[in-house]
Amino acid sequence: MGEPTNTGRVEGIDQARKRSYTALSDARCRHILSALDRDGPMSTETLAVTVSADERDVAVDAVSDADVESVLIELYHTCLPRLEAAGLVSRDEDGTVRARLDGHEAVPDVRAFLETDRRHAAASLAHLAVPERRAALVVLAGRNEPLDLSTLVAEMRRLDDFDSGVDSGDSLQVALHHVHLPRLEAAGFVRYDSDANVIEPRIQVADELAGETE
């Protein structure tokens, strides 16, 4: 008895799914798809500018030529060929790039991947609305070495605009230890050794953040 007639089609979908998930595992590829899904088709050059701005969370006129050139090279040589092979984008003869997210047979929930990125970004930004976490990140900005908790508290209390609403450094230290630093660690901003009371920055905070709080 021969193999089912749909075997070749199933294997083809499996290969397409593998190519799609490989592309979607790359953060820059997801930025490309998000930009195209949000703004519509655009030239490769415009896409490079848009992706550069999105990755840095700045306006398009704030990205440098060097940053755009770096992204453009990767778009041409890596990202767009990978996304095309996965059937997630297409390129017109004039170089216009288009997203192909609707009706994708191998990965019908492509937008779910992109929405996960957006939710993670929103959750990360929510931490900056909490004065204690924002001030802690300001103190840690630009540091490459671990910092002990008592030093972090002392430097936070020296910030001009910081008001945690607690009366003492001890109360602030307790709140950081039990609430704020574990939350920042879960979000990927820091690594906190709660036994040694040592904080190690994992994500560098933008200089603008420090400037707004000092």
TrEMBL record:
Residues 22-97, 128-200 form the DUF7344 domain. It comes from the Archaea. Pfam families: DUF7344 (PF24035). This is DUF7344 domain-containing protein.
